Amino acid sequence: MLDKYTCLEKLAARRNEEVVISSMSVAMPWERLSDGPFDLAHVDTAMGHVADFAFGLAMAQPQRRVIALCGDGSTLMCLGTLVTIAQRPTENLTLVITENGTYEVTGNQPVPGAGEVDFAALARAAGLRQVYTIETEADFEDKLPLHFQLPGPAVFVWKVARGDEPVPKPNRPILERARRLKSALAGTSPIDS
Fold it and tell me: Does domain 4-186 have CATH number 1.10.443.10?
């Protein structure tokens, strides 16, 4: 089983100017590691829409890698997104599903099918081909470069230990975070947008 925080630290250390969209139990740990203009904590709107939001960005910004950091609970809420991504493949999209079997930020209630659902099999059944399950530190180290190099869409299921993240409260309001990302993608300052 992986330590989510260690994995995020290693992902952040390798990251350059990829867009990273994070949600729920991953949002605050990621914000502590990386709070730049290409980061967006997507926690203020409907849970489960990080993958489809990241997919839209990947389509709009084909020259830039987009990484979506989703929980297993969030992924279950929008399984249809996997089919949509498979039908309109984007080479610059990486989807990371952190599987801990719980809705962590709301009190660690078990997600439906915890321990029984195979997220990699769901992604493959949806039509995605680049799908990897990572359970050990050695496997993570081996596959970490692929998060940035594989032609996407690529899906990585991280089997992580259950955590105790509270409800995410990002440093900035959603409108400011969204404007900052929009400006970074357009190459302008937030004041110009």
Answer: no
